[in-house]
Amino acid sequence: MNNMEYNLGILAGIIVGVVIVAVALWWNKKKNGSAAEFDERQKHVRGEVFQHAFFAVMAWNLLYWALTLAVDHPLMVDGLSGLVGLFIGVLVLGAESIWKDAFFTASSRPKSYVLLYAAVCLCEVPSAILNWKEMFQDGVLTYKVMPLVALVTFLVIFLTLILKLTRKEPDEE
Questions:
Q1: Residue 138 and residue 107: Cα distance in Å, rounded?
Q2: Which of 159, 158, 157, 134 shows the shortest CA–CA distance to 144?
Q3: DSSP character for 76?
Q4: Measured between alpha carbons, how far is 22 from 18 in angstroms, rounded to an integer?
Q5: Which end of the chain is more exposed for a tag (fewer CB within 10 A), N or C?
């Protein structure tokens, strides 16, 4: 594959992603008015969740560093471990904050996000399958693994959201 074509494909994907996010934000603002605020409990929980996500990324960095030292050669192409760490942070942040009711404001509708996360997962499946055989080159993990990493990240967040929405809350007396 021509390197220029690949770079243009990446650029087109980024542009489409930015446009989708901008339209979603505009639509949400038009539909709900001004941004809703988190309550005090949610703000406190979100602070804790941000800490957990930070420490998960640091643990990943430490683990990758130790593994690289142990085998005496890189396990991933340059920069890939940072991207994997970013997705680990997103995974911890998303799943834990959903589970602890700190991802959505009181006025938002979590059920509307189910379709969004399902769509993100479905969009990643073909790319993960197509890149499956090219994830390793010369014994090193390449950027071709990123669709799989994104799929796993958003699939776990999606499943957490589904579990949270279907879980019966005990009656508080």
A1: 51
A2: 134
A3: B
A4: 6
A5: C
Half-sphere exposure of 3 (CA within 13 A, CB side): 0
Q: What is the reported pLDDT for 32? A: 64
Reported pTM:
0.79
The reported pLDDT for the residue numbered 89 is 97
**Largest Cα–Cα separation, the chain:** 65
**Torsions phi, psi for 109 (to 5 deg):** -115, 105
Which tokens go with 79? 């920069």
Spans of the chain, pLDDT less than 50? 172-173
d(CA 35, CA 16): 24
Between strands 140-141 and 136-137, the pairing is antiparallel
Angle, vertex CA 128, rays to CA 152 and CA 76, nearest 5: 80
Closest CA to 63 of 81, 86, 41, 43: 81
Q: How many CB atoms lie within 10 A of CB 143?
A: 16
- Cα dihedral value 95, 74, 5, 24, nearest 10: 10
CB-based burial label for 116 (10 Å; 0-12, 13-18, 19+): middle
Q: 116: Cβ–Cβ under 8 A, 6 or more apart, which residues?
A: 24
For residue 45, give the nearest of 113, 92, 96, 91 by alpha carbon.
Answer: 96
